[in-house]
């Protein structure tokens, strides 16, 4: 399962206020969003910025797979502060907040032309933790947020 992290700038900081659940097709190893126009329309109507994404690794540990790296590159090229949250409920740590390094991670992924869905990247320091320290993300239980589910009701 995956979601889109949306929010607004306040006093030169970005605050996530909405977990947007898009229409999606998921397998045990992948999640692909669908009907992106509905996501865009919701964000425009609610004056929200896309600040990153969240997804699960139901049976794997908490890390960024090659597919995750390519997805994150798409977010990060549009907004350098974008983050990826990985939830791995069967393992410790059970979640992580990540971003591609820049350089070397973001340019390496943007120049990758490997066709396989999952493949190796043979460079060090391709991604890093975004939570503080050492990163730019602060977590607080005092912030208010909500979930907006765009999936069709059956």
TrEMBL record:
This is MPN domain-containing protein. Residues 1-104 form the MPN domain. One of its GO terms (molecular function) is metallopeptidase activity. InterPro entries: JAMM/MPN+_dom, MPN. GO terms for cellular component: endosome; membrane. It comes from Verticillium longisporum (Verticillium dahliae var. longisporum). SUPFAM superfamilies: JAB1/MPN domain (SSF102712). Gene3D superfamilies: Cytidine Deaminase, domain 2. GO terms for biological process: protein K63-linked deubiquitination.
